[in-house]
Amino acid sequence: MKIIFVIFFVYFLSGLNAQASAETIYLKNGRKLIGKIIEKNEQQVKVDVGGVSLTYFPDEIDRIEETPSPSAQAAVPKPVSPDLRPWLPQKPSPFQNEPQRRDAEPTAVAVPPPDPLAGLNKQQLIWKLIEVSGTRVSMQKIFDQMISQAPAEQIDQIKAMFNIDEILLQVVPIYDSYFSDKELRDLVNFYTSDSGRKLLEVTPAITQESMEKTLNYFQRKMQETPLQAP
């Protein structure tokens, strides 16, 4: 055991009296000393025990704890670190490899976008669905086709006779009888989505190609199995 005993004379420091706090030194061999640390570095620790200076190597010391005097105990205690041996090898902390924690940043609260259908009653939802589903556009195309085939002298008369909005007013009660408010909202949201707009865009082509496929099917069947005359 590497213990070096060095005898020093009894000394007093100004401002330091018998009521000052001391340290309790726990050695690895099981011994316990109570004294005042007078020097501490990476190579050695010198402790004054009853006027005698004792020197210890860091690997001989288990731990050091502060022992407050009775007067210090009466005062408000200050927190003392349980380990006052920063110069001794420390056991690796299980958390030493974790990244340093930063102060928690406030979590951003996602604000939902405003609902464009909020506040619309059922009648307004029906009109909205008629617009976004392409019903008005389809009826306008049919009306324009009728105008293009009418005699020139009757065009103005036909335009004055038919009004798209008046025709749609006859259709609104039909929607009202088949769909609830929620279903109307769901349909409007679908037709205004990317998928809904794609459906409206490709529906004419799908209809045309489907009609062609169906016609070819019937023609092929008629050739394979001609109808017998009654």
Describe this structure in words.
With 230 residues, the protein is α+β, with helices and mostly antiparallel strands. Among the domains are: 3-74, SH3 type barrels (Roll); 122-191, no CATH class. The chain has seven helices and six strands. The chain has helices spanning 70-74, 122-132, 135-149, 155-161, 164-178, 181-191, 194-224, and strands at 3-6, 22-27, 32-40, 45-49, 52-56, 61-67. A hairpin with a 4-residue loop joins strand 2 and strand 3 (32-40). The longest helix is centred in the last third of the chain and has 31 residues, at 194-224. The radius of gyration is 48 Å and the shape is elongated. The termini are far apart.
Q: What's the CATH topology name of the domain at 3-74?
A: SH3 type barrels
Please give the CATH architecture of the domain at 3-74.
Answer: Roll
Secondary structure class reads alpha+beta
Give the overall average pLDDT: 76
Order of helices and strands: EEEEEEHHHHHHH
Chain oligomer state: single chain
Strand order of the largest sheet: 1-5-4-3-2-6
**What coarse outline follows from CA principal-axis ratios?**
elongated
What count of helical segments does DSSP give?
Answer: 7
The N- to C-terminal Cα distance equals 126 Å
- Major sheet summary line: 6 strands, antiparallel
Helices and strands in order:
Blueprint lengths: L2 E4 L15 E6 L4 E9 L4 E5 L2 E5 L4 E7 L2 H5 L47 H11 L2 H15 L5 H7 L2 H15 L2 H11 L2 H31 L6
Helix pairs in contact: 2-6
Keywords for this structure?
230 residues; alpha+beta; SH3 type barrels; six-stranded antiparallel beta sheet; 7 helices; 6 strands; 41% helix; 16% strand; elongated; disordered N terminus
